[in-house]
Structures are given as C-alpha cells and as structure tokens.
Amino acid sequence: MNYAWMLSAPTIVPPLDPGFRPAVMANRTFDEAVKASGEGVPLFLGLERNGGALSRFETAVFPEGHEKAEASCFYIERIVKFLLWQRGAWKVHVGGPAYVADYLKAAYSPQGDRAFDYDFMGKSVYEQTFTVVGCAAEDVPAENESTQPLGRHLDGCRIGFDLGASDRKVSAVIDGEAVYSEEVVWEPRKQTDPTYHYNEVMAALKTAASKMPRVDAIGGSSAGVYINNRAMIASLFRGIPEDRFDEVRDMFNRIGKEMGVPLDIVNDGEVTALAGSMSLEDNGVLGIALGSSEAGGYVTLDGNITSWLNELAFAPVDYNPEGPEDEWSRDIGVGARYFSQQCVFRLAPVAGIELPEGVTDAEKLKSVQEKLEAGHEGALKIWQSMGVYLGYALAHYARFYELKHVLILGRCTSGSGGDLILNGAKDVLAKEFPELAHINIQLPDEKSRRVGQSIAAASLPALG
C-alpha cells in the first residue's frame, strides 16, 4: 500500500528506537497533503454503541482514483482502530467515498487484518455482530453522547481494591482515610481455573474487612472492559478457557451478593483519572497507568465519565510497519508496547540488558529499575525513550480528548523513571507541539501516591 510518504520521522528521536514513526506526525502529514491537494472530500465516522450511544469523528480524505487514495485507507483504518478502543463501537458508519468503506469492511471482518477487533468489539464487548456500514456523509447518524458521575463517595467503611497483572492491592478506607493497605504479587494471566481468581479476590477483601468494624461498600479497579460490573474483556483472564469465561464475567456481581454490600468495579484507568481529579480538585483529566500494560481513563471537563472504553493499550501510537507486535491483538504499534513493562522488556536487549529468567515479570521490571537507579546508561535510555513516546502519544491523544491535565503513574513510573518519562514528554510537547503547552502533565503528588488510588476505588459505590 502506498502510504510510506506519510511516515514522518519525529524531531526528537527515542534513543533506542530510530524507526519510531509517531501517529500524530503521520496524521498531520496526511491532513496537510489532503488540504494542499485542493481535492479533499469530507469523511464522517459514526461509532455506535449499545443503547443508541454514538460518537462522531470528522476528517477529509482523497477522492477515489486519486494517486494517493490508498493512503486514505491506511489513515482511516488507523483512526477507526484508535476510536474503537478509545470510544468503543459494535457498528461503524462510514460516510464518505465508497472505496474507504469497502476497505474497512474487509479489514474488520472474520478473515481480515482486524479479525481480533471484529471479534472482541462485537461478541465480547457489546454482544452484537460487528458491522461496518458505508453511506453518504449526510446519512451518518447524529452524535449521542452522555456522561455520568463516578465515585467521590467517602462516607462509611469501604474496601478499595486494584487488580493488576503483577500484583493485587487492597485498602480498608474509613470516611476517606486509608487505615490499612497491602500489596500481593500474583500472576493471574497464567491461570486457567476461574476459582483461582475468585479465591484471590475474596482473600484480599476479607483481609481488608478484618481491619474495620464493618463493611459498607466495595469498589475496585482492574485492567479490562467492564460493563455493569461484568468483565467483557480482561487480559487478566486471558488464560481462562472460553467455555468457563462466564464464571469470571459475572464473578464480581456474585462477590458483591456474597459480601452483602454494594460492589462496583471499573477499568483501572478510570480510577486513575478519578484519583487525579480528586487530588487536583480539577477536571479534564486523562489518567494513564504504566504497569503490566497501559490503562487509560478520562474525567470530562464537567467532572464526569463517558461511556467510552478508554482502552488505550490497544490504540495505535506508532505507524512504523516494522514496529513491535502486540501478543494478544496481533496489531503493530499499539500503546501497550510503549507504555508498560512490556516496553521495558522490549527495549532491554537493545540497551544491552539481559533480563533474569525464571522470575515474575514484576521481578524482571525491578531488576531493570535497579540498573536505572545505579546509573546504567542503557537503562537510562529505556526510560528516556518512553518519555519521547509519551510526548508524541499525548499530542495524538489531544485530538480525541479535551485535556487540561495528564496524570501518569504505575510501576514503570517508580523511582527516577517517573521523572525521566515526565520530563521527556514535556520536552516533546514544548518543542514539537507548543500549541499544547497548556496541558499539565504530572506524576501523582505524595498524597495520591500513598492512598489516592485506593480511596478513589473505594469511593465508587454510593450508599443507600
């Protein structure tokens, strides 16, 4: 496909990844070429979710028959892929040239390059048949977005938990103050028996419950897509056979009934954003957790959340066709490979670092972080590269979110690594995207580092 001309090299190059081709730069090059041609035609995307919710996105492409028309297909496919994992959809309305809609229909089909997305967005997330519909631009349905409050309930005796791929955390919270917290290393992705997950979660909840006179509510966060407390997609449960997945899909509703209190669980990125909003006492917050994968969450300018997925781990940020492949979705250049311990492990050999064998991923990450703190030049370049990645990714994200604040946290930001990522991202925005200088990028303050995440998770359910 003729799109190589779009792949602009960044001004600031990640020290360990000279082939990096940021999505934001490629999209800018394409948009400028369409405008300069004087032949651009409008294209409208409508992403339909359950209950009639619909997001719209507007852009322009080359007309059919144009010498650069093929690049339109690549450009729109990457935009659709981003929007699917940012906002979600089981039906995509493509209002514009028929050749673009036809390309997307083939790509997002059981036999297409995006068969993973076809299956997961359709069957797993929205329990519908995923569909791409071509139409005239004026026939794309009107936008239908809604927001709702999330959490911020601090009254009573509450449990807050967070389930990550490397560890599970739980806190006992009384009237907004964490009175007990623990962190336990585990490896849920390798487990094939749903009973393991149930027992681990119950053990955490019972430990926290023993530290309080009673339990009024339970709030939790976990990697994955949760709708009405049901796990629709969750990398933690990837080892569970399909014929037993319903046991984990409905596990949290069952646990809530057994505990006899309200229980709410949401994506861990949403809790990250909520914790940031509560700490900053402001809104328009994108929270990004750099842990075993990349988790994203967003609090709107009015302090609410959307019905969007915000699963940025699967949203593309690098258009280099030789970029790293995600082991689950089999796509190239998606966030999980740039903003998580997966990135550290990917770049370690390039940095001259040999990862220890026979240990958990958490221990592998810690071993590289120890080299960083000891001044290892290769380790330093890993975190510098992540900072560059983040700067260009945030400029890309800013096209899809209204941002005032970006809060980054997670295991990969521990120690001096967090400042390296933060400073690298700020440097990219200042030099390459001065129009985005208003975005405040920061690590959590000391209060948020200590108890913010657990308090935010515990605050999810309302009492009464």
Q: What does it look like?
A:
The protein is α/β, with parallel strands linked by helices. The protein has 2 domains: 39-145, no CATH class; 148-464, ATPase, nucleotide binding domain (Nucleotidyltransferase, domain 5, 2-Layer Sandwich), CATH 3.30.420.40. Helices cover 36% and strands 20% of the residues. It has helices spanning 23-37, 69-86, 98-107, 115-126, 194-209, 245-249, 251-259, 268-280, 341-347, 361-373, 377-397, 416-432, 446-458; strands at 41-48, 54-61, 91-95, 131-135, 147-148, 157-163, 167-174, 177-185, 217-222, 225-227, 230-233, 263-267, 285-290, 294-299, 305-306, 405-409, 440-442. The strands form 5 sheets. The chain has a 5-stranded mixed β-sheet with strand order 8-7-6-9-12, sandwiched between helices. Strand 16 (405-409), helix 12 (416-432) and strand 17 form a beta-alpha-beta unit. Helix 11 packs across helix 12. The longest helix is centred in the C-terminal third of the chain and has 21 residues, at 377-397. It is globular. The termini are far apart. The mean pLDDT is 93.
